[in-house]
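On clarity, I found the account of how folds are encoded harder to follow than it need be. Since the whole study asks how a given chain folds, the encoding of that fold should be made plain. The format is easy to grasp once an entry is in front of the reader. For illustration, here is how one protein appears when written out as sequence plus structure tokens.
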Amino acid sequence: MKILVLNGPNLNMLGVREPAIYGSRTYSDLEAFIKCAAEELGVPVEVRQSNHEGELVTWIQEARGAFDAIVINAAAYTHTSVAILDALKAVALPVVEVHLSDPMTREPFRHVSYVSFAAEATFKGRGFESYSDALKHLAEKGDR
């Protein structure tokens, strides 16, 4: 199972942006963490980040036929992007949604997730571990 891990806007600012919510580790730390977790599970991953909605949509579309599943932290686009939802539905790959924080404990506008309408599971509020939970979920599903 080959997994595409997509990260949305402002995740490149980890370590700088609201450390009380997101912690002090950087985006480079997150990439290394994801790759290490995937290696431990024996699952190949490709990790990408963009601040641009259209680029994320293009990558989702290109995943069809190239990847077996998508892990996505759409960040702010989680709550606004029907385009990302439609792309996820169009490619018909297993999708797992992740969040470093728990959006349900934050501002009310973060309580709606368009991504969740396409996701088979959501892992949130565990920082970097949300990603390892998502990868483990998919790896175990692939073993069946």
Q: What stands out?
A: The helical segments are 19-22, 27-41, 53-63, 82-91, 129-142. The radius of gyration is 14 Å.
